[in-house]
Structure formats: structure tokens, C-alpha cells
């Protein structure tokens, strides 16, 4: 499913297929084990817990974020949280924190708003030696 400007060598194709197979097997295993645990936990109880977590996140987003949710990346002031923007992407949404947050509250809001950036930066450092690990 990947395309490049030049054809992949047979060894590259084998490596990509091996990684794709590993990805699929890992996904399948985690998916099966998740649903096994969810059924043991109780699906109605799981739905209730998820609903409570969504409500809590919405309240926190309302307290932390300008506009209460994501904004177009170009509307986010410099020095605020940068959005994750994959290469070749269109208009990306990101988050801007409210002004005047206490330091502890700001740290909580950053963790709530942008956890995927920490993961992306970690991957960048491991794979490419890039990423500053800072989110705000």
C-alpha cells in the first residue's frame, strides 16, 4: 500500500510485508484480548465508564481550551500547543490553552489536550533523531 518515487527492492518488499503482517497480528491479538476483557467486565458497565470519561474530558476541555475544543492550526497563537501535522495534510486542527491558567492546571491541560504529540516525538527521536519533546 506504500508508494514511492522509485520501485522497492525485493528485500524491502519482504521487510514491509513482514512488518505489515506483524502489525496485523498484533492488532488482532490486542483486539481479541480487549473484547474478552470487556465482556468479562460487562459491556453495559464499560459503556457507562466510557460515557463518564467522555463527560469528564468535555468538562476539562471547556475549562482548559480556548473555544472549548480544537481550532484550525492557523488560528493557534505562537507559543501555544502545536498541532500534529502529518506530511501533505490539509487543514489540521489543534488546541490553544486559555490564558491565565495556574502552572499545575496548565500542565494538566497540556497532558489532556496533546498526549499524541508526546508519543509522536518519542517515535521521531527513536527513528529519526528528531522531535524536541516539548508541547507548549
Protein model, in words:
The chain is mainly α and 136 residues long. 58% of the residues lie in helices and 3% in strands. It has a domain at 66-128. It has helices at residues 10-41, 43-64, 103-113, 115-128, and strands at residues 71-72, 93-94. The longest helix is centred in the first third of the chain and has 32 residues, at 10-41. The relative contact order is 0.09.
In short:
The protein has 136 residues and is mostly helical. It has helices at residues 10-41, 43-64, 103-113, 115-128, and strands at 71-72, 93-94.
> Can you count the helices?
4
Q: First CA to last CA: what distance?
A: 35 Å
Question: How much is the radius of gyration in Å?
Answer: 20 Å
- In the predicted model, the low-confidence regions spanning at least 5 consecutive residues are 131-136
- What is the beta-strand fraction? under 5%
Helix content: 55-70%
Computed structural class: mainly alpha
Rough outline: flat
Count of DSSP strands: 2
**Main sheet, how many strands, which sense, barrel?**
2 strands, antiparallel
In N-to-C order, the SSE pattern is: HHEEHH
Mean pLDDT: 76
Strand order of the largest sheet: 1-2
Amino acid at each position: 500500500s506504500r508508494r514511492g518515487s522509485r520501485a522497492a527492492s525485493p528485500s524491502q518488499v519482504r521487510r514491509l510485508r513482514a512488518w505489515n503482517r506483524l502489525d496485523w497480528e498484533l492488532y488482532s491479538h490486542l483486539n481479541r484480548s480487549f473484547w474478552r476483557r470487556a465482556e468479562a467486565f460487562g459491556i453495559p458497565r464499560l459503556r457507562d465508564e466510557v460515557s463518564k470519561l467522555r463527560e469528564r474530558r468535555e468538562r476539562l476541555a471547556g475549562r482548559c481550551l480556548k473555544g472549548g475544543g480544537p481550532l484550525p492550526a492557523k488560528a493557534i497563537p505562537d507559543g501555544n500547543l502545536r498541532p500534529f501535522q502529518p506530511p501533505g495534510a490539509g487543514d489540521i486542527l489543534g488546541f490553544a490553552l486559555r490564558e491565565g491558567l495556574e502552572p499545575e492546571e496548565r500542565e494538566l491541560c497540556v497532558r489532556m489536550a496533546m498526549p499524541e504529540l508526546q508519543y509522536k516525538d518519542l517515535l521521531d527521536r527513536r527513528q529519526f533523531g528528531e522531535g524536541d519533546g516539548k508541547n507548549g
